[in-house]
């Protein structure tokens, strides 16, 4: 199974939408949530781009906006 990381922050409605979409394709145990405000480096990298999904070990990223179909193709 593919593991994905969701870069997000609390109170971001787009991040909540991205997580809801991601849960449709992966079990929650396969999703790592990283709140960008917990680390200065991730904050600098993602503050203007969240939500961003990083796929497994390939480190490929899919940034918002994306559709459910684009997400499904990204994960496949």
Helices and strands in order, then pairings?
Blueprint (H helix, E strand, L loop, with lengths): L3 E5 L4 H11 L7 E5 L4 H7 L5 E4 L4 E4 L4 H8 L1
Parallel strand pairs: 1-2
Antiparallel strand pairs: 1-3, 3-4
Structure keywords:
single chain; 76 residues; alpha+beta; Glutaredoxin; four-stranded mixed sheet; 3 helices; globular
Q: Based on the structure given, which CATH architecture is correct?
A: 3-Layer(aba) Sandwich
Structural class: alpha+beta
Tertiary shape: globular
Strand content: 15-25%
Rg, alpha carbons: 11 Å
Text of the CATH class:
Alpha Beta
Order of helices and strands: EHEHEEH
Kindly give the count of domains: 1
Output the number of helix runs.
3
What does this structure look like?
- The chain is an alpha+beta fold and 76 residues long.
- The chain has a single domain, classed as Glutaredoxin.
- Helices cover 34% and strands 24% of the residues.
- It has three helices and four strands, in the order E-H-E-H-E-E-H.
- The chain has helices spanning 13-23, 40-46, 68-75; strands at 4-8, 31-35, 52-55, 60-63.
- A hairpin with a 4-residue loop joins strand 3 (52-55) and strand 4 (60-63).
- The longest helix is centred in the N-terminal third of the chain and has 11 residues, at 13-23.
- 16% of the residues are buried.
């Amino acid at each position: 199974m593919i593991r994905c990381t969701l870069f997000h922050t609390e109170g971001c409605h787009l991040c909540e939408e991205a997580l809801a979409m991601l849960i449709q394709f992966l079990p929650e145990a396969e999703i790592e949530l990283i709140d960008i405000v917990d680390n200065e480096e991730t904050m600098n990298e993602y503050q203007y781009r969240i939500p961003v999904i990083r796929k497994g070990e390939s480190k490929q990223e899919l940034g918002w906006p994306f559709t459910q179909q684009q997400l499904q193709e990204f994960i496949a």
